[in-house]
Design a protein that fits this description.
Protein name: DNA repair protein RadA
Helix content: 25-40%
CATH topology of the largest domain: Rossmann fold
Strand content: 15-25%
Structural class: alpha/beta
Radius of gyration: 27 Å
Family: Belongs to the RecA family. RadA subfamily.
CATH architecture of the largest domain: 3-Layer(aba) Sandwich
Pfam families: AAA_25 (PF13481), Zn_ribbon_LapB (PF18073)
Number of strands: 20
Keywords: ATP-binding, DNA damage, DNA repair, DNA-binding, Hydrolase, Metal-binding, Nucleotide-binding, Stress response, Zinc, Zinc-finger
InterPro entries: AAA+_ATPase (IPR003593), DNA_repair_RadA (IPR004504), P-loop_NTPase (IPR027417), RecA_ATP-bd (IPR020588), Ribosomal_Su5_D2-typ_SF (IPR020568), Ribsml_uS5_D2-typ_fold_subgr (IPR014721), Rubredoxin_2 (IPR041166)
CATH superfamily of the largest domain: P-loop containing nucleotide triphosphate hydrolases
CATH class of the largest domain: Alpha Beta
Largest sheet: 9 strands, mixed
Number of domains: 3
Strand order of the largest sheet: 5-4-6-7-3-8-9-10-11
């Protein structure tokens, strides 16, 4: 029997239904409705209290203590907006095995090598101290300024902080930690919320930057209650394909900088290294041009990256031709193929078409449509395009080439890497010098210009 006056609340989004249900009507999460006990009393009038510090004009507030400090990992600093801000709490999420712990071990090492902001404290709840020590030895991340503790209790972590007095605290992971003051198993909604709230309070009280490792669910979102992302200051997503050494660090939320920056890393035998110029990873380094390839420029966050789109068109021996896609949006590829057959007269109804990107790069933005068009036609005609040609543009259903955002930045990146010709949509604005730019308004003109380039 439910006590009179009791209420229910969703631990994921905070919605309060009138009765218990298995699935939250607001966020559609299963098993998150919990009984709150007695209903909350009506809001009472609050008496004025003594402020902890007097209010001051904003121009008189000291900002030097809140300046970001470099972590020593340049690609991470790029995403963070300059480094770790004292008192900031950063949540790093990613799939198992993507390299989160390896990256943060590098951060702890570089912080300790700097030595100006105190030692680094790495707390692990998933491995023993010996296992982490072996990984640090393998990757060459050993320094006397690095402190390591294997704990899963929040109060023990606070004790280590008092003893070590670190300049940065890394907790791997928040789902393995528990607070003795609340009930529930580690990793549950109640425990994750309590542990995160405790660490956030610690960070704000002592001006200590804290980096938390978070697991992700099957759909790629951060595991745990949604309020977890609201409690922290920065949310980073670490992504990568298991079959590729490339790793992308994306900013999802950032209170201290841009939230659309990305950092590029490469997993090597002795750890993880930043890739300041990753465009070469996404292109074929062969000297001779090959039919069925086209170069384009994608934008990840604010970063232009050159990538290669490849296509293979061959005679089909099946009643229904195959369409295989890797690294591209399959629905968009099928749309571009239909436009080619209808507007440009390229017969593909009896041909197998395979389209892919190079280096494990995933491109879903429409700006690569024109490169896909040229790659498919190049493969169908068995004629290679110029290796110094780059293309940018969205293809519409009428066969027109539409403008895309950041065309100037894209072409400037291509010019920097030595490309001499570019095909762009009409009215693309002011474009950089040093590269010959030709504006094309439809697919037919683009194909004719590419054949002459």
């Amino acid at each position: 029997m439910v006590k009179k006056g009791s209420g229910f609340r969703c631990g994921e989004c905070g919605y309060e239904p009138a009765k218990w249900v298995g699935r939250c009507p607001e966020c559609q999460a299963w098993g998150t409705i919990e009984e709150r006990g007695d209903a909350r009393p009506p809001i009472a009038r609050v008496a004025a209290g003594a402020p902890s510090a007097p209010a001051r004009p904003i121009a008189e507030v000291d900002v030097e203590a809140a300046r970001a400090r470099h972590t020593g990992v340049s690609e991470l600093d790029r995403v963070l907006g300059g480094g770790l801000v004292p008192g900031a709490v950063v949540l790093l999420a990613g799939e198992p095995g993507v390299g989160k712990s390896t990256l943060l071990l590098e951060v702890a090492y570089q912080w300790a090598v700097g030595g100006t902001a105190g030692p680094s404290l790495y707390v692990t709840g998933e491995e023993s101290a010996g296992q982490v020590r072996l990984r640090a030895e393998r990757t060459g991340n050993l320094n006397r300024g690095m402190y390591l503790a294997a704990e899963s209790d929040l109060s023990a972590i606070l004790g280590h902080v008092d003893a070590v007095k670190p300049g940065v605290l890394i907790v791997d992971s928040v789902q393995t930690m528990s607070s003795p003051q609340v009930d529930g198993a580690p990793g549950g909604v109640t425990q994750v919320r309590a542990v995160t709230a405790g660490l956030v309070a610690l960070a704000k009280e002592r001006g200590l930057p804290i980096v938390l490792v978070g697991h992700v669910t099957k759909d790629g979102s951060v595991a745990g209650p949604r309020v977890l992302e609201h409690l922290v200051d920065v949310v980073l997503q670490f992504e990568g394909d298991r079959h590729s050494t490339l790793r992308m660090l994306r900013g999802v939320k950032n209170r201290f900088g841009a939230a659309d920056e990305i950092g590029c890393f490469e997993l090597v035998e002795d750890g993880i290294v930043g890739v300041p110029d990753p465009s070469g990873l996404f292109m074929n380094t062969g000297a001779d041009p090959v039919p069925g390839t086209a170069i384009t420029v994608a934008v990840e966050g604010k970063r232009p990256l050159l990538g290669e789109v490849q296509a293979l068109v061959s005679k089909s021996h099946m009643p229904q031709p195959r369409r295989a896609v890797s690294g591209l949006d399959s629905a968009r590829v099928n749309m571009v193929l239909a436009v080619l057959e209808k507007r440009a007269g390229v017969k593909l109804s009896e041909m197998d078409v395979y389209a892919a990107t190079v280096g494990g790069m995933k491109i879903t933005e429409p700006a690569i449509d024109l490169a896909l068009v040229l790659a498919v036609v190049s493969s169908a005609e068995d004629v290679a395009l110029s290796s110094r040609l780059v293309t940018v543009g969205e293809v519409g259903l009428a066969g027109e080439i539409r403008r895309v955002s950041g065309t100037g930045r894209r072409i400037a990146e291509a010019a920097r890497l030595g490309f001499t010709h570019a095909l762009v949509p009409p009215d693309s604005g002011k474009l950089p010098d040093g590269i010959r730019v030709l504006e094309v308004s439809n697919v037919g003109l683009a194909l004719a210009a590419a054949r002459k380039a």
